[in-house]
UniProtKB/TrEMBL annotation:
Name of the molecule in the record: YmaF family protein
Native organism: Paenibacillus elgii
One Pfam family from the record: YmaF
InterPro entries: YmaF (IPR024307)
Chain spans, region Disordered: 107-127
Amino acid sequence: MDIPVTGFVVHSGGEDDPNHAHRLYITSWDGRPVHVHPFSGTTSYDVGHRHHYAGMTEPAPSGVQHVHGYYAVTSFDAGHSHIIRGTTGPAIPLSGGGHYHYFEGRTTVNGSTPHTHSYGGNTGNEV
């Protein structure tokens, strides 16, 4: 099955730069525009500290029921950071238009005393 996808690629860094990158921005999926959501928050307080995180969800089609993948690296606190990743819940309509998603989970294990943190919250409105 073929699904038409449109978008563009942005090249950063020079040709001779070993750290150059290419980012793909998808603008439509199967004829529908896509959107993302900002998310941010603070983890639970464990082993004497907490972490902050912020990011944007992965794109998803607009106008249909959907979820988003998300990924972020937490702030560097107490000598380490953690990764958060997962899939949001389904869209929750906002009274003024748009929608948001609930997300929750546990971070990866890290730290001199190995541990995780819980996190959760709501994304912002669609962008």
